[in-house]
Structure formats: structure tokens, C-alpha cells
Amino acid sequence: MNKEWPLWEVFIRSKAGLHHQHVGSLHAADSEMALENARDVYTRRQEGVSIWVVQSNSIIASNPEENTSFFDPAEDKIYRHPTFYELPDELKHM
Amino acid sequence: MTAKEKNFEALFQAKIDQEIKIEAKDWMPDAYRKTLVRQISQHAHSEIVGMLPEGNWITRAPSLRRKIGLLAKVQDEAGHGLYLYSAAETLGTTRGQMMDALNEGKAKYSSIFNYPTITWADIGAVGWLVDGAAILNQVMLTRTSYGPYARAMVRICKEESFHQRQGFDIMMSLCNGTAEQKAMAQDALNRWWWPSLMMFGPSDAESQHSEQSMIWKIKRKSNDTLRQQFVDATVDQAKILGITIPDPDLSWNEEKGHYDFGAIDWDEFWQVVKGNGICNRDRLKARRAAYITNGKWVRDAAIAYAEKKQQRDISKVA
């Protein structure tokens, strides 16, 4: 038998109140081992309070070669930013 | 090269020039991908093989404090190897392919690990000099152009700084100890100094891959620049320890603002690279035993168990 252990992506919440963030990947035979390996590899110095592991092949990613058309809808909508709207000079904060 | 590829290549170089990182799914020239796979896997192998000369001393460390420090450092190196293998895998190679290349002697790792650690002072010298040299290279690589490699390096550098300190700390204790202990520290410096300088690779004039790697910003400082940086930093540290760097030509050059140092024995370097160092055969033997003889059945059993469990879960649902 010559099967490689599947690849998992690891996400860690560094402390309560923050998002889980992608930190890297690892190989593991199953989800339980993936969690334990993630703990041993990515939180040896208490870098996290919560870990997610996801099999890498379950992630659907956008294609960078189609970036121009894919992200096109947001390109010309400067009115979505507060700086688009002018305020009178006497108004200091809004 | 087709016109389309030429255009891609120009866009690629423009991104590099603008300091935009290259990510895994972005278009990249085949040679860039190949260079990175070679360099990152070589770097990963160095972390893994690097555990061997130190692992040798875990059970022999002179106190519990030294033992837990060394154990933590060796564990870190396993982690660093893993971050790097993962970064290389984003380029389309597999863990198995990289392991096979190492075990078959096709892939290189840092030649420094083909030298033996014969006394406890060697563990101090390895941390102080070998990790010290590696850190300079790794700090540079936190700004490398390939995103996954750069991110792995940031993580590694954060963890690595304790490695050099624990090595220096070992050297300090020995140098402040008995005359015999200090002699042991001096002996370790004598043996590790020149191989440490060789870690930065051939001189710029001789370096095979350097020029293109600088254009691609995989490397951002030349071998000789990093080597000089290492010598300049280390001379003062040796003075604090009160031991002598084994180089009669070492002297401060006021004009350049750097230390001049003697000629490196490149014949020795190439001999070790070619497999004729003191420990080359032992290291590969140990890696093969770990991966094939003692490791393969464990990996196979784990995957068989995972598949069986999955089957059981499916039949439960049905």
C-alpha cells in the first residue's frame, strides 16, 4: 500500500473574539489525528484557543487567472466608500 | 516560448518588481516553480536531518533544564520541516515524492548536518553557530517572493530565536566553568567554525543558481553578503565567551567596516556535498530507517484504520 495521508488546512483562533485564521497545512490519516497534529505543530507556544481542520480538497477557490472579471463588479463603485460623500467644512466629525 | 507565455512572464516579473507576492495558484514560469521546489524541499530536509545530530544528545544532556530545552528545539525543527514541506506541496510536488528524493540520495540537505556532534559542547556550538547562520538566511527569506514560503519563514523565525540563545547559553556555562569545560567549548568552536561559514553556500562568483534567484527575489541577499554579516556578528560573541575563532587571518578592516577572514576550504565543502562527509551515510541510513523500515507500516495502519472507520460510519447512516 502506498497511499499518502490526506492534506488538511489548519485554521486557528488565537484568542476569543478573533476570527479563525489560516495558518498552514498538514497531513493526517483522519480528522482526529489532524486536530492533534495541528495542536502539536501550530500551537506549541499557546498560539490558539480553537482549531479548525478542513480537508484541503474540500476547499473551493477562486481562479486568479479570472481575477479581473471575477472582481470586476466592485471596481467602479466608489460610492460604497465614505470618502465619496462630501461634508460641509464646519462639520468636523461624522 | 509562445507570445502568450512571454506576456505572462513579463506580467510575472512586473509583479515581483512591485513586491507583489506570488501565490500558489498564480501563473509562474516553470523554472521559478522548479527552483522553489528544489530550494524549499532542500530546506525542509535540512530541518528534518538536522534533528539527528541533536537528537543524539537528548538522553545525554547534563541536566533536566538542558534536556527540556534541547527537546523543545528538536520538536521545533520537526515543525519547521513540516511548514516547509507544506509550502513546497503548494507547488505541485507531494510529500512522498520529496521523501523518496531524500531517501534515495537525490535531494540535498544542508551539509553542516554531515558533521558529528561528539561532545556536549557541540550542541552549544550548533545552536550558537549553525542556528545563528541559519537565522540570517531565514530572516532574509521572510521577504522571499513566494507567499507560502515567506509565511512559513515568518513562523520559523519567530520560533528560531530561542534556538540560538539556548546554544549560546550552553557555551556561556562551559566557558564560565572549569578549564576542561572551556577547552571543550573551544574545541567545538574549532570544529564548527569553518563548516558554519560554508553553510551560506559557494562564493557569489561560483554560485550556480544565485543570479536568477535574485532577479526573482527568491533570494534577496547574496551568499557572500550573508556570510560577512554572520562573521561580523559572531566575532564579538566569541569575545564575550572568551574563546578564539580558529582563523589567523581574521582582522577588523576599518575601511570596509567589516571583518576580513581567511580562505574557506571549498574542496572540503564539495566533498561533503558529494556524500563523502563524516556522517552522510549515517544520516541517510537513519532517515531511511525512520521513513521506510520503522515508519511505513505505521502510516499504512493509520490510513487503513481511518478508512475502516469511515466505512463503519457510512453503514451506520445507511
Short description:
The complex is a heterodimer of chains A (94) and B (318). Chain A contains two helices and three strands.
Question: What is the topological layout?
Answer:
The complex is a heterodimer of chains A (94) and B (318).
Chain A: E1 7-13, E2 20-27, H1 31-42, E3 50-55, H2 67-70
Antiparallel strand pairs in A: 1-2, 1-3
Chain B: H1 3-17, H2 30-49, H3 51-55, H4 64-89, H5 95-103, H6 120-141, H7 147-175, H8 179-198, H9 210-215, H10 223-241, E1 251-253, E2 258-260, H11 266-276, H12 280-293, H13 296-317
Antiparallel strand pairs in B: 1-2
Helix pairs in contact in B: 2-4, 4-7, 6-7, 6-8, 6-10
Tell me what you see in this structure.
The complex is a heterodimer of chains A (94) and B (318). Chain A is an alpha+beta fold and 94 residues long. Chain A has a domain at 1-60: Phenylacetic acid degradation B (Ubiquitin-like (UB roll), Roll). Chain A is 17% helix and 22% strand. Chain A has a three-stranded antiparallel beta sheet, with helices on one face. The longest helix of chain A has 12 residues, at 31-42. Chain A is elongated, with a radius of gyration of 21 Å. The relative contact order of chain A is 0.18. The mean pLDDT of chain A is 93. With 318 residues, chain B is an all-alpha fold. Helix content of chain B is 69%, strand content 2%. Chain B has 13 helices and two strands, in the order ααααααααααββααα. Chain B has helices at 3-17, 30-49, 51-55, 64-89, 95-103, 120-141, 147-175, 179-198, 210-215, 223-241, 266-276, 280-293, 296-317, and strands spanning 251-253, 258-260. In chain B, strand 1 and strand 2 (258-260) form a beta hairpin. At the A-B interface, strand 2 and helix 1 of A face helix 4, helix 7 and helix 13 of B.
